[in-house]
Amino acid sequence: MEALITTIIQPLVDHPEDVIVTENEESNKIIYHLTVHPDDVGKVIGKNGRIAKSIRTVVYAIGSDEKKRIYLDIM
């Protein structure tokens, strides 16, 4: 899942080398923390959060096979 998120985000940003995805697994959920260069935060979030919502939709759809709830935090 981390590779999928990285693959989606890197073409969107100006600093693809600064894309970091970490996973934090708890008892009933998995949280992915996405960190990008400060100049690229707006590009990842998009106008009115449209790009962030689209990325989350893809991640949640892929992760629907898991028994745990999946979350994506953009930092």
From TrEMBL:
Compartments reported by the entry: Cytoplasm
Keywords noted in UniProt: Cell shape, Cell wall biogenesis/degradation, Chaperone, Cytoplasm, RNA-binding
Major localization class: cytoplasm
InterPro entries: KH_dom-like_a/b, KH_sf_prok-type, KhpA
Pfam families associated with the record: KH_KhpA-B
Keyword presence, Cell wall biogenesis/degradation: yes
Gene3D superfamilies the UniProt entry points to: 3.30.300.20
Family: Belongs to the KhpA RNA-binding protein family.
Job of this protein: A probable RNA chaperone. Forms a complex with KhpB which binds to cellular RNA and controls its expression. Plays a role in peptidoglycan (PG) homeostasis and cell length regulation.
Quaternary state and interactors: Forms a complex with KhpB.
Protein name, per record: RNA-binding protein KhpA
Phylogenetic classification of the source organism: Bacteria, Bacillati, Bacillota, Bacilli, Bacillales
